[in-house]
Amino acid sequence: MPVCTVTLLALKGDIADFLDVLKHSPIKPLVTARVIRWIVKPTTLCKESLLDQQPPWDLLIIHEGTQSTWSENLAAMIQNTCSVQTGIPTNITSSFASINARLLHRNRSEMPALTGALPNPRKASSAQSLELDDELHQWILSGAGPKGAVSMLNLLAFKPGKQSQYLKYGQAFAESVGSKRGGLAKLVGKIIPGTCTDVWDEMALAHYPDLEHFAEMLASKDYQAANHEWRLPSLEDTCILCTSELDLQGTNQKARL
Question: In whole angstroms, how far apart are CA 253 and each of 150, 207, 246, 250?
C-alpha cells in the first residue's frame, strides 16, 4: 500500500509564486488545495499545532511518498508545515487523477439536485458536531467561500473499540445521506505511526459539488440521524478543514473563489 504524505503549509509570501515553483519540482501532488476555513476544530489532539499557526495555513498538499523533501527554493518560501503520513490503496491512487478531474469540473446539470432541506434547515448551536449553525450558514449564504467544488480534509481519532461503529456511518454516507448530496470520500487512509501528528487514526478527503450541497447535507434530518447514531459516539476527537483545489497545470493557479 503506497504511503502518502498530507501536509499543511503556511507560506512566507504569495501562493501563486509558490505554486509556480512547485509545478517544476520533483513533488507531483495528488491534491493541491487552498485552505479556506475550519468547519470543525480539534478539541484536544494537535490543537495548538493546528489552530495556533501564525500566519494561518495557506495550502494543503497530498502526494505519494514519505515526508516531503522540499527543494531549496521551495523551503525558502515556507514559514511552517504540519504533516501526517497515511497508507492509501494503490487502486485509489492510480486512478485518482482522472476521477478527481471529473469531480472538480462537473457541469451543474451533472450534480445531484438539492433535496429541499435548506429552506427550513435543522440548526444547532455549534458546528463542532458537524451540524449547521447560524455562523456557518450565514458564511455560506454570503458567498464568501468558494463558488465550486470543495474538498474537506478530515482527521479522525476513534474511541477504543468504536471504529466499527464509524464504519456504519461511512456506509450510510456512501450509500445515501452523503452521496445523494454529491458527497464522496475520495481519499481515505490509515495514519502511519511515527509522525508528529500520528495521534490520529485515519484521514479522509471528502468531495462536495459546492458549499450549498454540503450545507444541505448538514441541515437534513437523515444525515443528522446517521451523524448522531454512529459518527459522533465513535470519535475521540476530529477536525475538518474546508479547502478549494487548484490546478497546477493551468496558467492560473488561483482558487475557484
Answer: 16, 20, 6, 7
Is the bond leading into 55 cis (omega within 30 degrees of zero)?
yes
| Of the candidates 36, 247, 220, the residue with the CA atom closest to the CA atom of residue 131 | 220
Q: What is the pTM of this model?
A: 0.94
Q: Which three cell numbers stand for residue 253?
A: 493557479
Cell of 79: 514559514
Q: How far is CA 127 from CA 38, 132, 239, in A?
A: 10, 6, 11
Quick: pLDDT tens for 17-74.
999 999 999 899 999 999 999 999 999 999 999 999 999 999 999 999 986 679 999 9
pLDDT tens for residues 221-256?
999 999 999 999 999 999 999 999 998 865 344 444
First to last CA, the chain: 35
**Beta carbons of 16 and 228 less than 8 angstroms apart:** no
User: DSSP characters for 139-170?
Assistant: HHHHT-S-SS-EEEEEEEEEPTT-HHHHHHHH
Q: For residue 50, what is its C-alpha cell?
A: 493546528
Based on the number of CB atoms within 10 Å of its own CB, is 138 exposed (0-12), middle (13-18) or buried (19 or more)?
Answer: exposed
| Cβ-Cβ contacts under 8 Å for 66 (sequence gap 6 or more) | 3, 5, 85
Helix and strand numbers (H, E) in the chain are 10, 8
